[in-house]
């Protein structure tokens, strides 16, 4: 079997690209919304304005906004103060690995949290009432 330089070079580029790009693809957090996987990293990315992937159905997720779905949370979520947060009609269940509150709300511009169910943990509000904060909770 005779290999051409073009074939060899193409294969080498593909292997190098997979080695460089592959690990970074797995670092983008995922929101699963299926009640099977820990969604905490994906939810934290959503609430911090960082990239995330949506794998679940029956929900809407974009930077700062989450509507519907069921989520497992394995660590405290702390929204970034630069992102307006809107979370409606979602169910959050604490995993045994969660220590402390499910959400820690501190120095946020806006936190609209309505029609949600929290199971196994609560919300900690820090410095609520500062002039720059708007918090809606029901």
Rg over C-alpha atoms, rounded to the nearest angstrom? 20 Å
Quickly count the helices. 2
The counted number of beta strands is 13
Strand order of the largest sheet: 4-5-7-10-13
Strand content: 25-35%
Q: What low-confidence regions span 5 or more consecutive residues with pLDDT below 50?
A: none
**Silhouette:** globular
Sheet bearing the most strands, described? 5 strands, mixed
Which series of helices and strands comes N to C? HEEHEEEEEEEEEEE
What does this structure look like?
- It is a single chain.
- By secondary structure, this protein is an alpha/beta fold.
- Helix content is 22%, strand content 34%.
- The chain has two helices and 13 strands, in the order H-E-E-H-E-E-E-E-E-E-E-E-E-E-E.
- The strands form four sheets. Strands 4-5-7-10-13 form a five-stranded mixed β-sheet, with no helix packed on it. Strands 2-6-8-11 form a four-stranded parallel β-sheet, with no helix packed on it. Strands 1-3 form a two-stranded parallel sheet.
- A hairpin with a 2-residue loop joins strand 4 (60-62) and strand 5 (65-67).
- The radius of gyration is 20 Å and the shape is globular.
- The termini are far apart.
């Amino acid at each position: 079997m005779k290999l051409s330089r073009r074939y060899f070079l193409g294969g080498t580029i593909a292997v190098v690209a997979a080695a460089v790009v592959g690990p970074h693809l797995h670092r983008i957090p995922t929101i699963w919304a299926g009640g099977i996987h820990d969604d905490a990293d994906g939810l934290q990315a959503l609430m911090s304005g960082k990239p995330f992937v949506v794998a679940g159905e029956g929900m809407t997720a974009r930077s700062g906004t989450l509507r519907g779905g069921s989520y497992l949370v394995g660590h405290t979520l702390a929204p970034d103060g630069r992102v307006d947060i809107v979370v409606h009609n979602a169910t959050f269940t604490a995993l045994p690995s969660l220590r402390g509150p499910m959400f820690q709300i501190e120095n946020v511009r806006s936190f609209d949290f309505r029609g949600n169910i929290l199971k196994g943990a609560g919300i900690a509000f820090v410095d609520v009432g500062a002039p720059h904060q708007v918090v809606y909770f029901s």
